[in-house]
Amino acid sequence: MDDANVIELDGLTRHFVERTVLRDVSLTLKPGQTLAVLGRNGAGKSTLLRILATLLRPHAGSAKLFGEPLPRQGWKVRGRLGLLGHEPLLYRDLSGRENLIYHARLHRVTLDRVEQVLTQVGMHERADDPVRSLSRGMVQRLTVARAVLHRPELLLLDEPRSNLDPAASELVEPLIGRASGTTRVLTSHDPQAALAEADIVLALHGGRGAYIGPPAGLDASTLKELYA
Amino acid sequence: MRTASAILRKDLLVELRTLETVPAMALLAVITFVIFHFGLNMDTLHGQLAAGVLTVTLLFAAMLAVNRLFVAEREQGGFDAFLLAPVDRTAMLYAKAGALFIFMVALEVIALPAFALLLDPPCLGHSLPAVLLILFLADIAFAVIGTFVSAIAVHTRARDLIGPIIGLPLLLPALIATARGLGPLLANGSSGSPPAKWLAVLALYDLINALLAIGLFDFLLEE
Fold it and tell me: Is A65 exposed, middle or buried (0-12, 13-18, 19+ CB in 10 A)?
């Protein structure tokens, strides 16, 4: 395996009690590449992202981020990745600005950067409203701001455009889209959109890698079976 | 310490916005004093009985805060956000113990006058500096053990039960030392000097538990 890889998975397996959620997944991802993880609900997509985010331990096989083995050396890579998952990781009773200031302090980021990302996601005017008073789309925009606040080198994006209207989706594109130039792992319920963004596709079926390779190699019938 | 300070500021801000913890603690303490006032049918308590009532009431009120200490982290993703940051995980212990300590002090600002008003212990004014010194050490014990227990309980379904079931036995030595230390101070003819023996027991208890909590806290945040 090459030390220059951002992600190296070898036989990665993860169980939840009796159920195997991920089984023997192996792949590599180079800097700047986008990995699209496809599969129906419960296929193991979010579990894979949480392992890569160092929030879950692999039960077998190995996972390396930036050449560092997880979970043992997870502390070395935490500041280099940004997670945009199902939960916004924002406190409902604080405002968007207060939440971002809190995250900025955790990541040792200057407060200027908070104002910058608030502007980039179009939330500057509503930044002092409590998160609980915002619409889902606005919360998602703040979540994007939170995920990119510390300029991560690897973005873990679990259905990042959910709740976003087309205009908001376009707004966050420079931050989390291909234009960001960041290495990305992306899950989506819209396979066509994910394939359009991907350099590599991991199709998960029952926790196994049913297909790993370039998007062009994934034929329509395999894709159909994946979501059947 | 910068990380701990950031978490502490956030926790205090959330409490100021929601007022979910300290008012509930204060209300429980005042109601408990009212219950003792009428239940014991005594207008004044003194000595060990007064000390016991005060200590147990503060302990039960503290349990409310212990049960709520990590709820926002659990329900609003605060744990994940913290674990994703490149920070020393013990910062969470320092911050949460700091928040719990501040909640206890705020509780006592309300509970002590209510205690004086409803149960009228003799010499409370005269012994106040010594009483505050003992409560300061007791608050450290409640804060450290409370944070540790809360971090265990929050990962369980029965967290409202686990907190008191684990926390109260662990806090028993602190409870004994606090009540025994306060007893002579709330008795008729109190000298107003804190009993050195019980101060030493409380200080030692705080030190040992703080070291244990610092050593073990990291493991509680692991999956």
Answer: buried
Q: Which residues of A touch B83 (CB under 8 A)?
A: 54-55, 78
Residues of A in contact with B87 (CB under 8 A): 106
Q: Tell which A residues from 98 to 127 touch B, by Cβ distance under 8 Å.
A: 98, 102-103, 105-108
**Which residues are CB-neighbours of B221 under 8 A, at least 6 positions away?**
B79, B82, B83, B89, B92, B151
Q: Is residue A130 part of a domain?
A: no
DSSP B109-149: HHHHHHHHHHH--TTHHHHHHHHHHHHHHHHHHHHHHHHHH
CB contact under 8 A, A130 and B17: yes
Per-residue pLDDT of chain A (228 residues), as tens digits, is 445 899 999 999 999 888 888 999 999 999 999 999 998 888 889 899 999 999 999 999 999 999 999 888 888 899 999 999 889 999 999 999 999 999 999 999 999 999 999 999 999 999 999 999 999 999 999 999 999 999 999 999 998 888 888 999 899 999 999 888 899 999 987 888 888 889 999 998 888 888 899 988 887 777 777 777
CATH number of the domain within which A184 lies: 3.40.50.300
Orientation of helix B159-185 relative to helix B47-68, angle to 10°? 150
Q: Given an 8 Å threshold on Cβ–Cβ distance, is A105 in contact with B6?
A: yes
Closest Cα in chain B, distance from residue A50 (Å): 10
Residues of A in contact with B86 (CB under 8 A): 75, 78-79, 107
Q: Who contacts B143 (Cβ-Cβ below 8 Å, separation ≥6)? A: B97, B98, B100, B101, B104
The answer to the question of residue A132 being in a domain is no
Domain that holds residue A190: 7-90+152-226
Total domains, chain A: 1
**Is A55's CB within 8 Å of B18's CB?**
no
Subunit contact A55:B72, Cβ cutoff 8 A: no
- Asked, for residue A134, whether it belongs to a domain, the answer is no
Q: What's this model's pTM, rounded to 2 decimal places? A: 0.89
Give the containing element (helix H, strand E) for A210.
Answer: strand A208-213
Distance, in Å, from the CA atom of B8 to the CA atom of B96, rounded to the nearest integer, reads 7
d(CA A101, CA A98): 5
- ipTM for the whole complex: 0.86
| Cα gap A7→B52, rounded to integer Å | 59
Angle ∠(B95,B100,B102) on CA atoms, nearest 5: 95
Give dist(CA B201, CA B197) in Å, integer.
6
In a domain? residue A179:
yes
Pick from A57, A79, A103: which is nearest to B81 by CB? A103
